[in-house]
């Protein structure tokens, strides 16, 4: 890296904190587990696992955190009891993992199609971001209330994993947090407020990552629809890139360049942050740079909070009319079994006609017409013997198979 | 409830590839034609970005009643947010009854956001479309002439998806499930050049680069005969381990003979399970391009050989529309044998050489 570019990067990295939100989905462990009679998937009665494609999203989120610092938040929707073990398992990994998880769990959200799901998830993402903005606001409101009040408030919020080390920290290595400098008299109240306001702007630059699709039928619509839902909620367009195989955050930390494959073309898309990515199965994160690890620590939060936050429709301020079954424009009709089983011919077993016969008279009854290759089933045994004897009917052989396949 | 009586016509989104409509576009035209005929409505093809007169005419030849084409500098190269804006404006102004996309990377990039912006449903991954009615038991109301969006359900069933009370009814079709119509050069249709009225706009994203990728070496979609191998090739009928390379060599031989003898394009296929087993014996011989099934290619050849494939639902959805299915498996309970037209309960290491010698000997002789 050129010195100037790297220098610019370091300058920027010293003043950012990024929220990285990973969308996860619980899917049935076996695809043979059927929907209920009404056609709605009953997730409470089946074994649920993490959608395998979502692991790449977790890796991508972790990469962003290693690169610029911040906090990775997993967000999922469905029955809490089923999803809780899944998200908890993602904390354990040393190399990658998540810092916090949110489960949107409410009867009102059940039975949602992709539109109602995306609406709920977009509201969940916005609420998650606002929680962090509110924490900074609380600090802003306490700046002028004396050292003790400020330290108490900062410590309380820090322990809830809501403040980055750059605002307040109990890490011995981070001595220059805004609150510490304020308390030590190294920073004036107005200057501190300016820095805190700048951090609020940074929190608005979040990245949402998702898997490219799920294994249970939804074919990759929710990611782009969440981007659209966030655009609606924020009143400005939030860009997205699907099928991302590689991405890099630019030195200004306000843009992201994504390479993606769309069928027979590859495309490089440069997007302003906030943005949403769906991560291809081909994605491989780059190795962390140890120097950067040290730098970005001040942008990280206290650590991991493994107990998932469980939010209802109320918690995410969603319009109940747009949630769940009622908010879903698509309706699943009753499932139906597929078609008829094919007419089967068994090599060396089935008896078939070798010739075309318009009709055959036997015992005063007419049979036919029969085409060459038709199965000779259900005929009286004596007629069958007669037909076999005169060579009209015989065993279906490999040779007959070859003729039928390629004739 | 909104009044949707002025929503009419079936729209399909078409893609141009190397100067002509993509094969998948011809499939979505066939899908749209079927439902437009049942509704007695027009089928309108929508093309964004550069396209010649000849290309647009192709849409009519393959079933459209009309083509709406929108092209300006901002639509080249492909840029998702811009395409979404143009399609939203077009749809809002013209009010189609249904709007169908192909479920490929581009369809998945834009259709979901267009649907969200229009506050309507999107039925993804449909394998069949029809027109039918839906009775909503809660409202005690019958909806008629709805687009019936049929998709594979979990397990062995299919589900019908309806969008009763929003318009347009939006769907994506899975490639490989609709057969393009026979081209009819005499078919008449109209053309419209549409000018986007939303202005230049400013976007929080920009396309920096666009590159064509090399074509895949194997294209299963236009093969007439596919010989697919599954994990069953690792063992013979007696349960003894076999070198999978043997079965592969038999399959290649079979492919070559069929190509030479019947002048049919034949290709090798594989299941996901076989490819993900990463067998060193098959390294470089079978790749993702050969993969048939949900995460691979959906195919419907004239003849499909399923050799040592038990037939998981993920594989079956990718090949069940094949015209003649030959399944070879020692396990009589294998699901593949149930959907095959020619179930062969036999050791594949016996069957394949038998088939090859039958084809090489020629079949001039009697039966």
Overview of the structural elements:
Chain A has 407 residues and is an alpha/beta fold. Chain A has helices spanning 3-13, 54-68, 80-89, 114-142, 147-159, 178-183, 189-203, 222-234, 290-296, 381-389, 398-406, and strands at 19-23, 26-28, 48-50, 71-77, 100-104, 207-211, 240-249, 255-262, 265-272, 275-279, 305-311, 331-332, 336-337, 351-353, 360-362, 365-367, 393-395. Chain A folds into two domains: 3-322, HUPs (Rossmann fold); 351-406, no CATH class. In chain A, helix 2 packs across helix 9 (290-296) and helix 4 packs across helix 8 (222-234). The relative contact order of chain A is 0.15. Chain B is an alpha/beta fold and 367 residues long. Chain B has two domains: 10-194, 3-Layer(aba) Sandwich (Rossmann fold); 220-361, Rossmann fold (3-Layer(aba) Sandwich). Chain B contains nine helices and 18 strands. In chain B, the strands form four sheets. A seven-stranded parallel β-sheet of chain B has the order 7-11-6-1-4-5-12, with helices on both faces. Chain B has a five-stranded parallel β-sheet with strand order 15-14-16-17-18.
Mean residue pLDDT of chain A: 87
Q: What class do helices, strands and sheet pairing of chain A give? A: alpha/beta
> In the CATH hierarchy, what is the architecture of the largest domain in chain B at level 2?
3-Layer(aba) Sandwich
What percentage of amino acids of chain B are in beta strands? Answer: 25-35%
Let me know the largest β-sheet of chain B: 7 strands, parallel
Number of helices of chain B: 9
The sequence of SSEs of chain B as H and E is EEEHEHEHEHEEEEEEEEHEHEHEHEH
Distance between the termini of chain B: 68 Å
Largest sheet of chain A: 9 strands, mixed
Specify the overall morphology of chain A.
Answer: elongated
- Estimate nothing, just give the exact number of structural domains of chain B: 2
Spatial ordering of strands, largest sheet of chain A: 9-8-7-10-6-1-4-5-11
Low-confidence stretches of chain B: 363-367
